[in-house]
Fold this sequence. Notes:
Domain DUF4440: 5-115
Helix content: 25-40%
InterPro entries: DUF4440, NTF2-like_dom_sf
Number of domains: 1
Distance between the termini: 36 Å
Strand content: 35-45%
Radius of gyration: 14 Å
Pfam family, one: DUF4440
CATH architecture: Roll
CATH class: Alpha Beta
CATH topology: Nuclear Transport Factor 2, Chain: A
Order of helices and strands: HHEEHEEEEH
Protein name: DUF4440 domain-containing protein
Shape: globular
Number of helices: 4
Amino acid sequence: MTAGITAFFESYRAAFxxxxxxxxxxxxxxxxxxxxxQAYTWASEADVVxxxxxxxxxxxxxxxxNATYEVANSLPQGDAGVTANLYWTITRRSGMPWxxxxxxxxxxxxxxxxxxxxxxYEERSAREKVQA
Length: 132
């Protein structure tokens, strides 16, 4: 991955560590899409912030300490795009950490990278497996 993409994901992770919904949401383009068990299209920044706040509330209530990630793989898509698959670890005060992969498609708008598609294909099942 390029230094710009690495810096983008470090900023994204830091926004999660701060439990700051607006800072997390600032990493998404509008419109953008989230796919987990369902698909959500975010048509406004307010849509993104509202959904991220729900996720961060879940994190807070689960004893969130911090988030770390490893890049599982990435693929450039010309000069203005990249897909990346990250392996996240969510450390919590009590209980086992949550570990899961999430896929991202990023596009560069002017000089800023933004997430246009987030595929959260393991997060919910990872949380449920640890809580079971």
